[in-house]
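ok trying this again, last paste got cut off
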Amino acid sequence: MTDLLEKALLAVRKLPRRSQDEIAKAMLRLAEGSAPLEPVDAAHRAAVLEGLGQVKRGDIATDAEVKAAFRRFNS
C-alpha cells in the first residue's frame, strides 16, 4: 500500500460510518473498473484545464490569502 493511500484511509477512519461506506463503495467501483464515467461539458473542462495550468505556473493563492477568503465566508 502506498503512503498516500494509507494517509487517505487514516483520514476516512475519522469520518462517520455512513461516509466511510460511501467512500468504500466508490473505491471498489474504481478498483474494479466499473465506475461510470461522468460526462463533462466543454465549458467545465476548459475551466478545469485552466485551473491546472495556473497550478503548473505557480499562480496559486498563498496560505494567508486562503485563510482571508475563508474568514469572509465564515463571517
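PB: full thing came through this time. The two ends are 41 Å apart (CA to CA).
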